[in-house]
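Case study 2.
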Amino acid sequence: MGIGAFLRIVLRYVRPYWLQASLLLLLLFVDTAFTTAWPLGFKFFIDSALEEKSQRLMVIILGALLAGVVLASIASLGRDYCYAFLSANVLHDVRLRIFTHMQRLSLSFYSRYGTGDLMSRFSSDLYALETAITWALASLILNTLSILIGAVLLFGLEWRLALLTVIGLLICVIAPRGLARRSTEVSIAAKEAQAKLADAVQENIQVQPVVKAFGLERQAISLFQRQSQELTRLTFRFGFLSYFTERIPNIAILISEILVIGAGLLLVFYGYRTLGTLVAFHAVFLNISASVGGLSAVMPVVFQSLGGLQRIEALLAEMPNIEDASDAKDLPKFSRAVAFHDVSFNYNGDRPTLDKVSLEISKGMYAALVGSSGSGKSTALNLILRFYDPSSGLVTFDGTDARQATLSSLRQQIGVVFQENVLFNISVKKNVRLGNPAATDAEVEAAIRAAEIHDFVANLPQGLATLAGERGGRFSGGQRQRLALARALVRDPTILLLDEATSALDPVTEEAINKTLLRVAKDRTVVTVTHRLSTITKADRIFVLDEGRLCEQGRHEDLLKANGVYAHLWRKQAGFALNETGDHAGVETDRLKEIPLLSELDHSILSELTQQFVTERYPAGRRVIVQGDPGDKFYLIVRGKVDVTIKDRDGERRMAVLQDGDYFGEVALLQDVPRTATVRTLVPSIFLTLERVQFSLLLERVPNLRELLIEKYLERK
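Prediction:
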């Protein structure tokens, strides 16, 4: 992309203000015409007024020049007003257009772009547009007009010298073209590097507790330094290419000027042209030279602006994956059932997250979607909300394909409470009212009462007018969840979706909120996604997903009797005891027997082993173990969720997500070997841990037991 693309993009943004733009162009022409024609005064002074020694002619010429100055000054003031008007309004239009367009884009878009990258579209990229309109575009037009008008005057004064000048100008235009294209490419790369650096800074700010806790300052600085050095390299290349592009025309114009002056002096010497004509020609030539220099100077800015403009254009070219069909109709009030008909879905073309799933959730049903991490339960919820569409199959509401319903009419009937509910930094009342902007004050208060947080809100210093703080940081996790529930209830939804709504809370808060959820679920269709099975024992129907397939469905008691996947998940999470505050956990002997490594131990050793476990708590985002560190401890997850990753030549890769009842680090009980993976908490988590020293003391009582366990472990691997 070059100057042509730059002009097309900028002029498209300016088009709605064509009247003001036309006036600006006229004023630019007047101003430029006077500035360029000014040197003709020298010709008239020298060849007419001085030659004829006419005082009257001198006064006329001076008067004409003075009138021209006044007219050009008025035109300049009008031009400045038009610049300011166009710049302010076009920037507002583009800002609004970007933000509005982003509201239309699907969730898949946000999973591909970092926050810092998107924020840079509103900062550095929009600044590039502002620079393009207020200076670069104006300079291009002004200097181009000056060159064109000057060229006409030059041919009128002396065509042979003018032809020589044009040849020099052509060299100025053609020579830098290759460098200009390369400058644009490097400018775009620099913008991308700048966005990545912004992403890194933002992430570092958000994870400062982890950085401080684990002493990661040096690693953070090292990563930032590498990214900053890459940005520095690209900035240097862009700067050099831009300045070199600017320098070539200046050199060419200086050489051209020497040749023109030499040829002009010969014409005067031999009497072919007057001295006044040569002086005027040279003055016009200097104006053209200045304009060429102006074009050269603006080129680096044009290239830099073009990088930002292309990024804005790329964002605006993004199309939403989910939008209303051309023949979409409003969905009638939900009355019968939500159904999946042979639904398959995948996020990135790999193995399906859901694979030919068929299920039905009747009106008024309390339904639960359960399964191990990655089984597709949250994906099913996303399809009900129509955050995504199935790759194949249908999701229907009362028999109507969700894709044939308008998004607004579908989502108006749904209230949703997520695992992490972000509140906006506005008042409590306004946060709740976001669920239904048309809700009255009485309806807002009724929703707050239904969420059982009315007494807490009433005791706040400013009551409902209390600001929630950034991302709701003024309130605890449980308080945020209750306010999020109130926000969902104020919609008076016929369908209430709960996506791991209590998994990140402490036991007491979780139990209290679950009771509230059961109460507000009456007379509503409730679909809950959870990995904690103890919270859904009273569900009307439980749908069990395994590797994207619906493998079981039924009530809690029936599924336990079936002794299938659900029963296995239940046994995995059973056998733990946790006090109300979550400070102390315990594990039963039979639960330890379920762990393959420990299944070889007799009951007496297992019973004694239960007393050796220690309770450990970690906040979200904390590294529990680090790949390469010495391994000396075994972990049982009582509550929580962790991410298991390994780092190799290709970077960091996720290996698994573990949750309640899972375990890791068992090889550390048998052998002193480095950790083979890094484990991070995704939510606040509670572990039972056992150190190798304690385990070894128990093994010493039974001869050859350690060797037997190692042999069994290696067989399973």
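Residues 197 and 230 are 10 Å apart (CA to CA).
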